[in-house]
Write a structure and sequence with these properties.
The protein has about 290 residues and is an all-beta fold. It has no helices and 21 strands. Strands 1-2-3-4 form a 4-stranded antiparallel sheet, with no helix packed on it. Strands 5-6-7-8 form a 4-stranded antiparallel sheet, with no helix packed on it. A 4-stranded antiparallel sheet has the order 11-12-13-14, with no helix packed on it. β3 and β4 form a beta hairpin. The chain is elongated.
Length: about 290
């Protein structure tokens, strides 16, 4: 089932409806859309019919709006709204959503070439919310505990360092964890809830490795646990392989010839057949 046609509900946005963001709640029951000229409009959403209902509005003209971003918490209860200089939290289950506003962060003045003010937000698969700036910077803001009320949500400004400069938008990450609504005729995939582990996975420990001598000269002895099997690799700091040797179960030591290897700093890596890896530094000196 789906809705075909047009629906007019709630406050209409003006032609200046830009510099904002829109999103659905993770449980698929709410929709919110906001921009710096019109504030935030929020609705209940029927996943079965595609219809919006129960409109609400957040007037943010008094909150020094420069740019706006919005995101729901993982449990869909809290709506986070940025206004350039502030991050606000609203309780969507409150009788008066607008009155539930809590200022959970104020821009601290930090600059990375340009000001790192608050702009768009995005709920990541790890359950944290990340936020961009509306200037080109190399950091993102983090809301570590977005399911928690008020300051307990733990906003960390410019908490994630990026390898390159980034501006404005956040990546659009699809929400793949939307489960069936119990009793709904529109949900037919049988995805009734998150998978629950019934048995702890067996942890695999990386084997211990001892190198002798270190510094090495013409020969290097690699000591490993007898039951370990895998491949030993000698690499330089640029990643070039200088020697390789297979280690089979039952052996306690493997000899690597290093007479033809130039003096310098190298790395010995043991990649076990179990998938673990152990790496140590070794100096070769002639």
């Amino acid at each position: 089932m789906h809705y075909e046609g047009e629906q007019q509900i709630g406050r209409l946005s003006s032609y200046q409806s830009w510099v904002g963001q829109a999103c659905f709640s993770p449980d698929g029951t709410r929709y919110a859309s906001g921009n710096i000229h019109n504030g935030v409009n929020f609705f209940d959403f029927d996943r079965c019919t595609g219809m919006l209902s129960n409109p609400g509005h957040l007037d943010l003209m008094a909150d020094s709006v420069v740019a706006m971003g919005i995101a729901f918490s993982p449990n869909s209860r809290y709506l986070y709204v940025t206004t350039g200089l502030w991050i606000l939290q609203y309780d969507m289950e409150a009788a008066d959503v607008a009155a539930s506003k809590v200022n959970v962060a104020q821009y601290d003045g930090f600059e990375s070439q340009l000001p790192t003010t608050f702009f768009q937000l995005d709920l990541a698969p790890n359950g944290k919310i990340y936020g961009s700036s509306h200037f080109g910077t190399d950091v993102l803001h983090i809301i570590h505990q977005p399911d928690q009320p008020g300051l307990a949500c733990e906003v960390e400004q410019h908490g994630l360092k990026l390898p390159v400069y980034h501006a404005f938008t956040m990546p659009n990450v699809p929400h793949y964890r939307l489960y069936d609504v119990p009793g709904s005729v529109c949900d037919s995939l049988g995805i009734d809830g998150p998978m629950v582990a019934v048995k702890e996975p067996k942890s695999v420990r990386a084997p211990k490795m001892v190198l002798f001598p270190n510094p090495a000269f013409d020969l290097l002895t690699v000591y490993l646990e007898p039951e370990a099997s895998g491949r030993i690799t000698l690499m330089d700091v640029a990643g070039k392989t200088w020697a390789e040797q297979v280690k089979t179960a039952g052996l306690e030591q493997v000899l690597l010839k290093t007479a033809e290897v130039p003096s310098g700093v190298y790395f010995i890596s043991f990649c076990a057949d179990t998938g673990t890896r152990t790496t140590q530094k070794v100096i070769i000196q002639h």
